Amino acid sequence: MKRNDLLNFCSNQTILQGHNSYALSRYCKTYAENLKITKSTTPKPLKPNQELLFGDSFSDHMFEVDWDSVTGWSTPEIKPYQPLVMDPSSIVFHYAFSCFEGMKAYKGVNGDIRLFRPDLNMARLNRSAERIALPTFDGDQLTECIKKLVKIDERWIPNEKGYSLYIRPNLIGTQEYIGVAPSNKAKLFVILSPVGPYYKTGFKAVSLLATSSFIRAWPGGTGNTKIGGNYAPGIKPQIHANHKNCAQNLWLFGPEEYLTEVGTMNCFIYWKNEAGELELVTPPLDGTILPGVTRQSILELAKSWGEFKVSERLVTIHDIKRAIQEKRLLEMFGSGTACIVSPIKEIIYNDESLQIPLDPNDSESQAGPIATKFNNTILSIQYGEIPSEWSVVID
């Protein structure tokens, strides 16, 4: 079956929702109102910003709420950071009933605390939950709880541009059962981690290993959701890429070798297309691509600027090779919450090095002008330097 035929087949199928998600709204509306808060009496020491690594240290508090199919959601709680107590038969340990989100809180230029487009994260987490038959929730109410958690742990937000407090909501199935079936119990929790730049090298171009022997996602699968089971299978290919002196994999799909994603990031190409137009291209949301918050923000910014054509369409590695040969490729970069924008300088494809242009006016530059503009604009919105409804202030 050809790719387009398979995509059409999958899109025409009935999508089964979570078995218990339809009835949950009545349980969720009391999240923020009934929130119980227990503060830590033993605050942990803070690391200097320059010692922060991504995701290896955690704040003083966490958010937690349980659900079961009979009573619904329990009383939500902010409490001291601590281990979860769970039965070893909990279904999440056996069949990966887990989905999560990645968000950040920023210390704005005026000292206020800001979130970036949290509504998109909440909507995506609910879509992920539905896909693996876990309960959904009221995103606005969870956002209010996250705001209170971040406010309590405000001292953990680094006061330096490029640094932030990473927010990790996670929803897991907790039923004590090792049969393969929907989970009648669940736990939603949120932890916080102060972070610096995702890559130790900072905002610098990276090399990618084009990978077609391992498949990240496929039509009808779960590649468009943030479920835990999507990520562990990508570690072995990433180790292989690292051995080739590449930071990430460039995932290719199908006999045509379509570009899909860059590691765990969305992929962008900026070029002069075959019609001679300047164009920003990213793969379409065909069910194999994660609908990234940064991806959506880049597309919306690009359309608002009106400086070049903006497209969501399929591109193959052979299109990239031809554009390089014809000197039409101008830039490539990845995008995601962790790094915002990650410029690409090289793709290793079948042991061939494809050199990706960066800044034609600066041979020492580690990023092209378009990637830099997107990165700086989004950073400025996140830290409140550019007014935008995308930046949500925590009172």
UniProtKB/TrEMBL annotation:
It comes from the Eukaryota. The keyword Amino-acid biosynthesis applies. Its EC number is 2.6.1.42. The keyword Transferase applies. It is an enzyme of class 2 (transferase). Keywords: Amino-acid biosynthesis, Aminotransferase, Branched-chain amino acid biosynthesis, Pyridoxal phosphate, Transferase. InterPro entries: Aminotrans_IV, Aminotrans_IV_CS, Aminotransferase-like, B_amino_transII, BCAT-like_C, BCAT-like_N, BCAT_family. Its cofactor is pyridoxal 5'-phosphate. One of its GO terms (biological process) is L-leucine biosynthetic process. It catalyses: L-isoleucine + 2-oxoglutarate = (S)-3-methyl-2-oxopentanoate + L-glutamate; L-valine + 2-oxoglutarate = 3-methyl-2-oxobutanoate + L-glutamate; L-leucine + 2-oxoglutarate = 4-methyl-2-oxopentanoate + L-glutamate. The modification N6-(pyridoxal phosphate)lysine is found at residue 226. SUPFAM superfamilies: D-aminoacid aminotransferase-like PLP-dependent enzymes. One of its GO terms (molecular function) is L-leucine-2-oxoglutarate transaminase activity. GO terms for cellular component: mitochondrion. PANTHER family: BRANCHED-CHAIN-AMINO-ACID AMINOTRANSFERASE, SUBGROUP IIII AMINOTRANSFERASE. NCBIfam families: ilvE_II, PRK13357.1. Belongs to the class-IV pyridoxal-phosphate-dependent aminotransferase family. This is Branched-chain-amino-acid aminotransferase. The lineage of its organism: Eukaryota, Fungi, Fungi incertae sedis, Zoopagomycota, Entomophthoromycotina.
